[in-house]
Design a protein that fits this description.
The complex is a heterodimer of chains A (about 425) and B (about 200). Chain A contains 19 helices and eleven strands. Chain A is α/β, with parallel strands linked by helices and about 425 residues long. In chain A, strand 2, helix 8 and strand 3 form a beta-alpha-beta unit. Chain B starts with a helix and ends with a strand. Classes of the chains: A alpha/beta (about 425), B alpha+beta (about 200). At the A-B interface, helix 6, helix 8, strand 3, strand 7 and strand 11 of A face helix 2 and helix 5 of B.
Chain lengths: ~425, ~200
């Protein structure tokens, strides 16, 4: 099993200075943009993206070409790049922003050309100060070289990019919350309908919201054609994907591979197995929102559909491995605390429910649990995500609430003995 | 204290970046925090005038985001990650080291206004867990000993500008990915160092 380098090739080839515009230009950089401007046919660009069958890399996995096709007509339309990467376990956009910002900028310009957009925003989470600095530096270089601003490379195309820094709210990764945040409001998700970004997005204008990795793929697709891209990976999960591997593996990191291999092979090849030769007890296949798989499920294939069929999601592509000595109740508590902290507070089941779940798990983890806590956990989860099914049903505006349910159903379905072990064997007499 | 002309000029430059004034609210709150170390009531008044919204609207936004602080921060904001990848890689020991060295509990600032300590959620450094940010500059692959060394160094040397690469080289270990590209830019405040808000500072070699 080997990596297939499309998006991370340039940064591997030039580890010292891949972020500089001269280096990017010298190595075929901005050639896709020049090609597109020469052909001058936006429809072709959209068709190439449709041919590539690329699906959004932010988590939901929506086909990008289809998304672009939805964008409503209007004089003012916007592109917003979602660089609010905050899903625990995920650090793939960080490397794309920090090490190859021009690849993203070229993708942004081509996307805006295809969709007749004159203003783009790159929204980067506040904690990514260093990656944001790199992107801003690259944007300034691109202006100097005539890739941005009015009459790009002597054509009629004009585009401005503003890099915007978030301020530490995970929920702003949800696209409508991100738009609220960019409008200077609380990062609360909007109701869909009516607020589908493609129709009523930023400032209520039609807006494309795409992930950093998705748009960074655009230059390669244009240079090599959508059909070539679709040959990589497997049907339904075409192309490559950057997986962030962390947890108890020997060598964590970002690895760009074609989708379709098994998780076990991935962890062995790139993670070099588990520290101290321990066994895998459980692993998270796609970020903290995804239900866990057990150490017996390492042969599941890394595709969007295979993971969904097995009852979880490939999500943001973050694989977190937990070895045999991990206390999974603590692990679940960590994830639930995350969602309790990050709940925006709009929907009662999520705001109250995640906090309840956190408190109950805290009680169990500290040895003060009660037998009735199990049914209480299930009850609270059921109020957030009725039926505890997968994909989850929701009583909330966005999927954050149900995300907090995932680690708990994972515990109850596969590791209930661990949970029971932490409950007292004697029932205390009521005072 | 109200904002001086220099700060107002920076504020107007930020506002010009956006099609609508209110979009500048987030960056302006960072300016406020650079000025006072937290979002003061005076700054809230100033910002409400700058972007034409009420003070309550400004406050409702500043209180929503965890990076805008309601109380005065110290010179160095120590944010230790406790999310899943760090949690299972013993971030607890790093948290305890910081607590032990500074004597602070979560969200507290010491009397000398040198350190503020907070436990935070995922900072995207999962491959280099456990990780910490000092004024939003990331250090990965920490041990309890190195954490204490770092705190001692901050206390004794009192660097004006915090640069991720410098801290990483001195005190860090395993990283999420190799940083071959050395960088001298960082932050001088408890605000991310970023050109658009004028907080990115370059360190002399």
């Amino acid at each position: 099993m080997k990596e297939t380098l499309l998006l991370t090739k340039h940064m591997r080839d030039f580890p010292e200075n891949s972020h500089k515009i001269e280096v990017y230009e010298k190595n075929n950089g901005y050639s896709a943009l020049k090609k597109v401007l020469k052909e001058d046919n936006p429809e072709n660009v959209i068709n190439e993206i449709k041919d590539s069958n690329i699906r959004g890399r932010g988590g939901a996995g929506f086909p990008t070409g289809v998304k672009w096709g939805f964008l409503a007509e209007d004089e003012d339309r916007y592109l917003v790049i979602n660089g609010d990467e905050s899903e625990p376990g995920t650090f793939k956009d960080r490397i794309l922003l920090e090490r190859d910002p021009h690849q993203l900028i070229e993708g942004v310009i081509i996307t805006c050309f295809a969709s007749n957009i004159k203003k783009a925003f790159i929204y980067i989470r506040g904690e990514y100060a260093k990656p944001a600095r790199r992107v801003q530096e690259a944007v300034e270089q691109a202006y100097e070289k005539g890739y941005l601003g009015d009459n790009i490379l002597g054509t009629n195309l004009s585009l401005d990019i503003v890099v915007h820094l978030g301020a530490g709210a995970y929920i702003c990764g949800e696209e409508t919350a991100l738009l609220n945040s960019l409008e200077g409001k609380r990062g609360e998700p909007r109701l869909k309908p009516p607020y589908f970004p493609a129709v009523m997005g930023l400032y209520n204008k039609p807006t494309l919201v795409n992930n950093v990795e998705t748009i960074s793929s655009v230059p390669w697709i244009i240079n090599n054609s959508g059909k070539e891209y679709a040959k990589l990976g497997v049907e339904g999960s075409t192309g490559t994907r950057i997986f962030s591997l962390s947890g108890h593996v020997r060598t964590p990191g970002n690895f760009e591979i074609e989708m379709g291999k098994s998780f076990g092979e991935f962890i062995d090849t790139f993670g070099n197995g588990i520290k101290d030769d321990k066994k895998v007890k459980a692993y998270i296949p796609g970020g903290a929102s995804a239900p866990w798989f057990t150490g017996d499920q390492l042969d599941i294939k890394m595709t969007i559909d295979d993971v969904a069929d097995a009852g979880s999601m490939l999500g943001s592509g973050a694989v977190v491995v937990m070895d045999e000595d991990t206390n999974l109740v603590y692990a679940a508590k960590s994830i639930v605390s995350f969602f309790a902290h990050e709940s925006c507070g709009q929907c009662t089941p999520c705001r109250e429910g995640t906090t309840w779940l956190e408190m109950i798990l805290e009680r169990i983890a500290s040895g003060r649990g009660r037998l009735s806590d199990i049914s209480l956990l299930v009850d609270v989860c059921d109020n957030i995500s009725p039926g505890l099914s997968w994909p989850p049903k929701m009583t909330t505006i966005c999927p954050l609430g149900p995300s907090a349910v995932s680690p708990i159903t994972s515990l109850l379905d596969n590791f209930s003995d661990e949970l029971m072990k932490m409950l007292p064997t004697k029932i205390p007499i009521a005072q | 204290m109200s904002w001086d002309n220099e700060l107002l000029e920076r504020a107007h430059k930020i506002i010009e970046l956006y099609p609508q004034k209110r979009s500048a609210l987030g960056p302006l709150l960072y300016l406020a925090q650079e000025k006072d170390g937290f979002i003061s009531d005076d700054s809230i008044v100033e910002i409400s005038n700058l972007v034409d919204i009420t003070e309550v609207q400004v406050k409702s936004v500043s209180s929503f985001y965890s990076m805008y602080k309601e109380e005065q921060t110290g010179t160095y904001l120590l944010s230790v990650c406790k999310s899943i990848s760090c949690e299972i890689n013993d971030s607890r020991s790093v948290i305890n080291s910081v607590k032990e060295f500074t004597g602070l509990e979560n969200y507290e600032t010491d009397q000398d206004k040198l350190f503020t300590f907070e436990e935070v959620e995922c900072i995207g450094a999962c491959g280099g867990a456990p990780a910490i940010q000092v004024n939003y500059e990331t250090v990965e692959g920490l041990t309890p000993e190195k954490t204490i060394e770092m705190c001692e160094w901050l206390k004794n040397d009192k660097p004006e500008i915090i640069v991720a690469d410098q801290l990483q080289n001195k005190f860090g270990g395993t990283q999420s990915f190799d940083w071959a590209i050395e960088d001298n830019t960082g932050s001088a405040y408890t605000v991310p160092g970023f050109q658009n808000i004028g907080t990115a500072k370059e360190k002399d070699n």
